[in-house]
Amino acid sequence: MQPSFGEGRLMRYPMNDNDLKWTIEDEELLLRTPVYDVLQQHEIAANGMVGDYITIDAPDWVMVIPEYKGAFIMVRQWRHGTQALTTEFPGGVIDAGETPAAAAERELLEETGFKCGRLVPLGSVSPNAALFRNRFHIYLAEDLIPTGVQDLDDDELLTYELSPIHEVLSAFGSGEYIHALMGTALALYFQYRAKEKMQ
Questions:
Q1: How far apart are CA 75 and CA 87, in angstroms?
Q2: Per-residue pLDDT tens digits for 116-160
Q3: What is the CATH number of the domain that holds 83?
Q4: Domain count within the chain
Q5: For every residue of the chain, which 3-state class applies, written as one string?
Q6: Omega within 30 of 0 (cis) for the link into 14
Q7: Which of 4, 19, 94, 133 qualifies as a cystine partner to 60, CB 3.0-4.6 A?
Q8: In 3D, which of 69, 107, 116 has the Cα closest to residue 88?
Q9: Is the Cβ–Cβ distance between 108 and 89 less than 8 Å?
Q10: What tens digit of pLDDT does each residue of 67-103 get?
Q11: What separation in angstroms does the CA of 184 have from each of 62, 83, 118?
C-alpha cells in the first residue's frame, strides 16, 4: 500500500526525476542590495502544482584551507549577523571576472599575508540549495610563503593565527568555530586526505 500524505493525496515511490522538477514561469526582483538580490520565482511543478518561492542571487564565494607546519591558518573577525567574533578559514566573495582559484589565492594573501605555492581544489557546493543560487568553492593551500603583510579592505578588521589541526576539528561547532560553511570545508579536506592515503 502506498503512503498517504496530507488531504488524501497519494505519492508514488520511487518517483521519476522528471516528476520532481519545477520550472520557473516568471521572476520578480524584490530587493537589490550591495551583496545579493532577493527574487520571487513563480514556478510550476511537473504535476501542475504552482507556487511562489524566494531565492537569493549572490556572487560565488570561496574559502581557503591554509595548511602550514602541521596547523591551519585561521582568521578571527567580527561577524555582523551574529554580533560575535568567529574563527574560521580565510575566504570571501569572488569578484566579477575572477576565477575561483584566483579568488582563493587573493583572499589568502589579503587576509593572512601568505602566498600560496600549491592550490588544490577540494570541491564546489551550494551554500543552501533551498535559497541560494550561487556556489561555494573550497581550496586547500599548501607550500605557503609568509610575506608578513596583510592587504585588508577598508572595513575589514581581522587577525590571523596558527591553530593545530586537531584543535580546530575538536572545537568546531562551539565557541568561535560556528561558521557552518567551514564544516563543509573540513569535510572536503578530510575526504581529500583519506583519498591520498588510499593511493
A1: 6
A2: 999 999 999 999 999 999 999 999 999 999 998 887 777 778 999
A3: 3.90.79.10
A4: 2
A5: CCCEECCCEECCCCCCHHHHCEEEEEEEEEEECCCCEEEEEEEEECCCCEEEEEEEECCCEEEEEEEECCEEEEEEEEECCCCEEEEECCEEECCCCCCHHHHHHHHHHHHHCEECCEEEEEEEECCCCCCECCCEEEEEEECCEECCCCCCCCCCCEEEEEEEHHHHHHHCCCCCCCCHHHHHHHHHHHHHHHHHHHC
A6: yes
A7: 94
A8: 107
A9: no
A10: 999 999 999 999 999 999 999 999 999 999 999 999 9
A11: 12, 22, 21
Residues 76 and 137 in one domain: yes
* Separation CA 147–CA 114 (nearest Å): 6
| Location of C-alpha cell 488531504 | 7
